[in-house]
Amino acid sequence: MTENEGRRDLRMPEDGELFAEVLDMLGANRVKVRCADGQERTVRIPGRMQKRVWIREGDLVLVEPWDWQDEKGDITWRYEKSEADQLREEGHLQ
């Protein structure tokens, strides 16, 4: 068994993006998340993700906070459970 067997290359946060955990589904395509910087934000699920990607409480997502209103933002990516576990094992999340 090699060291990298089963390892996948995952999408990492780009400039302005943060890891976040989904805390609560608010309805109307809005979600409450706790970001890696410790702040809770109300973020929206953009139209391109609404019918294609199902987001549930406890999921790990990437969030891009808004420039003009820091307590809000957009979800840019959702990780599968196995991908979230891999990120935790590699030390990207606390």
From TrEMBL:
<dbReference type="InterPro" id="IPR018104">
    <property type="entry name" value="TIF_eIF-1A_CS"/>
</dbReference>
<dbReference type="GO" id="GO:0003743">
    <property type="term" value="F:translation initiation factor activity"/>
</dbReference>
<feature type="domain" description="S1-like">
    <location>
        <begin position="6"/>
        <end position="80"/>
    </location>
</feature>
<dbReference type="InterPro" id="IPR006196">
    <property type="entry name" value="RNA-binding_domain_S1_IF1"/>
</dbReference>
<dbReference type="Pfam" id="PF01176">
    <property type="entry name" value="eIF-1a"/>
</dbReference>
<dbReference type="InterPro" id="IPR012340">
    <property type="entry name" value="NA-bd_OB-fold"/>
</dbReference>
<dbReference type="InterPro" id="IPR001253">
    <property type="entry name" value="TIF_eIF-1A"/>
</dbReference>
<protein>
    <recommendedName>
        <fullName>Translation initiation factor 1A</fullName>
    </recommendedName>
</protein>
<comment type="similarity">
    <text>Belongs to the eIF-1A family.</text>
</comment>
<keyword id="KW-0396">Initiation factor</keyword>
<keyword id="KW-0648">Protein biosynthesis</keyword>
<comment type="function">
    <text>Seems to be required for maximal rate of protein biosynthesis. Enhances ribosome dissociation into subunits and stabilizes the binding of the initiator Met-tRNA(I) to 40 S ribosomal subunits.</text>
</comment>
